From TrEMBL:
This is ABC-2 type transport system ATP-binding protein. Belongs to the ABC transporter superfamily. SMART domains: AAA. GO terms for molecular function: ATP binding; ATP hydrolysis activity. PROSITE patterns: ABC_TRANSPORTER_1, ABC_TRANSPORTER_2. Residues 5-230 form the ABC transporter domain. The keyword Protein biosynthesis does not apply. Keywords: ATP-binding, Nucleotide-binding, Transport.
Amino acid sequence: MDDIIKVENLSKSYGQLVAVNNFSFSVKKGTVFGLLGANGAGKSTTVECVLGTKPFDSGTVSILGLDPNVNRKKLFEKVGVQFQEANYQENIRVEELCEITASLYQNPADYKALLAQFGIAEKSKTLVKELSGGQKQRLFIILALIPNPQVVFLDELTTGLDARARRDVWQILKELKEQGLTILLTSHFMDEVECLCDHICILKKGNIVFDGTVKEAIEKSPHNKLEDAYLWYTDEEVLKHENL
């Protein structure tokens, strides 16, 4: 399979603080790649550098064979992005926001079908500010899919969703993956990671502490559950006990 995302020796510092240290990874077409780590591990910085929204100190990045800093307009016709703390106009109706987003792309997906698929079609006339947290989160995923992208970046995609809604979103993403969509996601939910991710990378203070499959992550740890293995890789297990 082709590498849809390819990152080599990516580094980014803020003064003396090293946020990302010589990080290399690739994401194959039609797979889900999970970028994991505690808050402050370097996940968000990595995603922003890969997307070209934040300059990095050294390394190379390509998405769909294009440099996000050089081929920005061409690339973002093919890329969808959902950030956890998205800032959208709140005094606008859901359908209006979707229509505006769709107007930015040459071949957008049918947003009405996406609203129905994600279970918020009845909210099309509702102001964004009147949506619940879970409904907003589903809307933000829809906005990331409106470009009809080949690759999508999802940041903590099911935060605020109840158990049923989370599983519904997972099923939709699985179906999109089967259709060839490539997904890079960050998540703190290990059940979500186990369900969706073909490959994971765990960061700690900007450095890779694990790179491989979920099965390998468990096998290479002293634990038999992913959540316990994750805490072991990131030392959060130790910190948690120290704070008791």
